[in-house]
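From the shared-data thread, chain only:
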Amino acid sequence: MTLLDNRYQVTRELGEGAFGKTYIAIDTRSPSKRQCVVKQLKLVATPEQNRFYQGLFEREAEVLEQIGHKAQGRIPNLLAYFTQSGDHFFVMELVSGPTLADCIARVGRQDEATVRGWLVRILETLDFIHGVEYTDTQGKKFRGVIHRDIKPGNIIIRESDGAPVLIDFGVVKEIAARSTIRNDGTMTMTAGTPFFMPPEQEKGQPVVASDLYALGVSAMVALTGKQPVELYDLSDLSFEWRKFAPGISPQLADALDKATQNKARDRFQTAREMIRALSPRPSVTQPPIPAPSPAPLPQTLPPPPPPNVSGVIARLEDDRKQLKTASKRPFIYVGLALLLVVFGGGGLATWYLVTKRPSITGKIGDSIKLPSGIEVMYIPKGAFQMGSENGYWDEKPVHRVVISEPFFLGKYEVTQAQWESVMGMNPSYFQNCPQCPVENVSWDNCQEFIRKLNAKGDGYTYRLPTEAEWEYACRSETTGDYAAYLDAIGWYKVNSGSKTHPVGQMKPNAWGLHDMHGNVNEWCADSYSGNYYNTSPTNDPKGPPQAEFKPRPVANSVASIAHFAQPNDSNKNKNQNKKEKAEREKNSGVPTGRNPIKVEAQPVDRVVRGGSWFNIAADCRSAFRLSSYYRPYSQYSNVGVRVVVVPSRKN
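Structure, as tokens:
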């Protein structure tokens, strides 16, 4: 058997094309003797051209290595590259599983739900690679990579988890294409596959929309079971595919038609735009509507495994007993403090006067069932990297955050039954499911729920988590986009059936928390600022100031801030009136006078975290921040709540 680079032992040939061969090989220097894919590039060129293409090859390899490591499983990693006997080789991670082309050949046309599933996931991958930053050998930064050869044969359905993986970037073909430039400057061939690549790519000028075109054609092939040559109408320069896929929703059909327009400017310009076309956000004014007549949901959860409460309750009860005993001796403490103050012991007096907060001890996996019926998990103190360089602008920069004290966090989202037992009503859009998470609750509603819980005096203090606490607990010491494979831990757009599900049905994260990546989004305590990460403190950040209000003019309403509507006082000096008026305008930003503009206070947005039954996968990531239109009074059928619990100062 052939040994390449004195390391990679070829076991079989996968295929051969115009530009070289592809092999399965064993990495003989790997401890596990792992299998990998070796792509061989053969070029016909002069020695001078070979030197040029060697540099090009190395730069392309460097790009693949950088984006592969950042992609976290969405594309295969580049493991190595080398040159041997004048030929160039890429060594890629082996992704086991059938290609989409294999699946179509085996079972024929796919249904809409299946196609939507992998289509959205591949769009998320394209959203990443089209926007990823990478650096060349000279340190120059670039943004975005175009795949150039998307087709069913280059999408593998990964055997281990069923996730679609985009393979075989058009890099090898692109390098080979550059090697076939004629003296007159024309190109004899270009990267891509006929009928999957659009006109601009055939001319050697691919753009982001070129990948979306190829992906749209791939979806048409999957929905019809036919090859693109059978679907393309040369007389009209368009794909006539709908008659071969009856019953497809207008939303999906229209999106595919737009993605495959002949002119690039008429297509979606970004993968994110196409994702939005396939999965619009909820209405601002009313909750999103689920699928009609949803099937009845289970009313009860299967009994959970016995909680690991060994030592935790005992420790908390000891803390509470100590506090209770201490509360019976206030006069002793005050007397001692006064004596110490008289005799110069001010520092010690302060120590006696301040009630010591009970400590929280435990270990990961410990849980407590509280008198309120809410079960909570122990979350240790620690540090983590908050945010994501692969995410949206408000998730950057990634920065270190320290959670200085342990706490307890709800094992599940608050259920409809738990909410109703405290509030006396169930506001949820998805009714008749006591164990489903409560939703359609505002931030203000949650504060009232928490106030009533705390009024019960059960020895614990309830509150919303800070945004930092939420992401720290969600990550549970992981650093990727998700705490585990999303389909195993979260109900989201692809698998939810457009509804919520009873809590705890999905697998928990490493710290025992369920549904952090799906089912419903969750309110946090913080106000929202898109630039907050630039100024966030390292230790226990609590968000920007929470008392901000933005006045806005409102027609025919009573002013809600008194000094905005103060009339002029004729008994005062005119200059003083002008001065006060100017000061009011400066403070409020709203003109005043005898007929002032009427205003109302507009509270700042609140942070919402986690994924939901409505969200696409990209919006279920650990670092994803949701805030637009999420005012304290906003209510949506995809937003619920999870609570933090600590022992009370006194019982």
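The chain has a mean pLDDT of 76.
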